[in-house]
Amino acid sequence: MHKWIMATLLGVAGLLAVYLLTFNLPEKEEHVAEEQFTVPDTPVDAATAEAFYKSNCMGCHGDQYQGAMGPALANIGSLRSKEEIYKTVLKGKSGGMPSFEGKITEEELINLTNWLAEMK
């Protein structure tokens, strides 16, 4: 009797799988490539960027950019592109890096990005 119950359950599971594959799969979504963004090369206002760093970033990345809770930024410019730095600051990262979207102007973000990218 045990074999009949297992065979019935397996048959029902198979029929359910066929039904779901035939009728209920969601429409295939096309992957839309993200727009390519290039951080413009602008003169860096180091004092403004450093002031922003001290008030918003130093707690996690350290006073000497050595890292603490967050990664070291002392040579971030040789590890990441300007676009990667820009996106990370703007959107944040899971695991603790906050998003600064809406908290920083585009000019401030570009200035900070270029300042960090110079750290090599």
Short characterization:
The protein is built from six helices and no strands. It is mainly α and 120 residues long. It has a domain of 72 residues: Cytochrome Bc1 Complex, Chain D, domain 2 (Orthogonal Bundle), CATH 1.10.760.
Keywords:
120 residues; mainly alpha; Cytochrome Bc1 Complex, Chain D, domain 2
If you had to describe this structure to a student in words, what would you say it looks like?
This protein is mainly α. The chain has a domain at 46-117: Cytochrome c-like domain (Cytochrome Bc1 Complex, Chain D, domain 2, Orthogonal Bundle). Helix content is 52%, strand content 0%. The chain has 6 helices and no strands. It has helices at residues 2-23, 46-56, 58-61, 76-79, 82-91, 106-117. The longest helix has 22 residues, at 2-23. It is elongated and about 80 Å long. The N and C termini lie far apart (72 Å). The relative contact order is 0.14.
Distance between the termini: 72 Å
User: What level of helicity do the residues show?
Assistant: 40-55%
Structural class: mainly alpha
Number of strands: 0
Largest sheet: none
- Average per-residue pLDDT, rounded, comes to 89
CATH homologous superfamily identity of one domain: Cytochrome c-like domain
Q: Count of helical segments?
A: 6
State the oligomer. Answer: single chain
The CATH topology of one domain corresponds to Cytochrome Bc1 Complex, Chain D, domain 2
Low-confidence stretches: none
So what's the overall shape? elongated
CATH class descriptor of one domain: Mainly Alpha
CATH architecture identity of one domain: Orthogonal Bundle
> What's the helix-strand series?
HHHHHH
